[in-house]
Amino acid sequence: MTDHTSNRGRWSGLSTRAIHLGYDPASEQGALTPPVFMTSTYAFETAEDGAALFRGEKEGYIYGRTKNPTQSVLEARIADLEGAEAGLAVASGMAAISATLWTLLSAGDLVVIDHTLYGNSYALFTRGLTRFGIRVEVADFTDPDDLARALALRPALVHFETPANPNLRVIDIAAVSAQAHAAGALVMVDNTFATPVLQRPIEHGADLVVHSATKFLGGHGDLIAGVVVGAKAIIDRIRGHGLRYLTGATIAPLTAFLLLRGLKTLELRVERHSASAAAIAALLADHPAVRRVDYPGLPGSPGHDIARRQMSGFGGLVSCELDGGLEAGIRFMNRLVLATRAVSLGDAETLVQHPASMTHATYSAEERARHGIGDGLIRLSIGLENLPDIREDILQALDAVTQTRGAVKSPLQEVRP
């Protein structure tokens, strides 16, 4: 297998690098696609050779839990796309976050998080870390004064998502990074929603970037994986500690292969997702069943100006609050025919979910209300279907909500037509 940093810097195009970087077919008997190395361990030429690998004096492979040649090509490509020195691929997005936290934090350390995170991330920080003596402070990262209050406590690390799950709040990466660094903290950004096609947080001052690679990076709903990228010294520590013995969350070689395949079409897919999502956001904004639309690309929406500065497009996620709360949300979801009721995102299929009862059920009702996650909030991951078909399905479901508003019968009693 070739040197996985080869070709770095030779090409400027994102898709070109996603397709070619870090692999030379000549190194593998002309195989156009990087092979899947289905092996758990690796042979050493001599005892001295093995000892040098264990001491870290030479690069190579020892055991499949920490590194595999297929995985190495993937890590080189995603790190390059994000503008990072190095990357680590693991078994899930939650594994990427947890392996990083267990590596970098110790009992007594403080972490500051934004108040709106993916539900399981929020649970990891507020219910998981705190069991082991790590303190967690929640702040509103869109409020400089509240962020300053939290940073005055001198955290070791700050973590946030932008756009955030599920209501697409936009956070100023450069401003938060500058404040956090002044307080001596590392900055970790979850870039799952934007992908490196639209946003590269390291260019705006972040130290680490994590992804649920299950989503847009994979793009086909057929794998679970995560990645973390950043400075090589930090990534090496996470591989050697957070992955090797703290979590053991190894990515399977075949999953790494599928992710490499997904990266080849990432730019094309994200462009299509984004164009369709912008059209659906406009449709939602004009419909009487919708109380509020959250989409960074809508002029006048909160965070729109920041998004224009740090993003080259606005992504494939749209959320909206339906007038009528829980019943309206359930009625809308049950009327969908083309779109699929499911909790993931970034797939070829349009996926719709209800955060209050699904991804953010780990929040209390009070926390959801405080963080802008209403009972009628719907999150739509706009897929790659033809836009007229997506529009027709969403419009008929919205019309059904409007026509039946105020009806006594609960939509929970209805059966999908």
Automatic annotation (TrEMBL):
Keywords: Aminotransferase, Pyridoxal phosphate, Transferase. One of its GO terms (molecular function) is transaminase activity. Transmembrane segments: none annotated. SUPFAM superfamilies: PLP-dependent transferases (SSF53383). Its cofactor is pyridoxal 5'-phosphate. Belongs to the trans-sulfuration enzymes family. This is Aminotransferase class V-fold PLP-dependent enzyme.
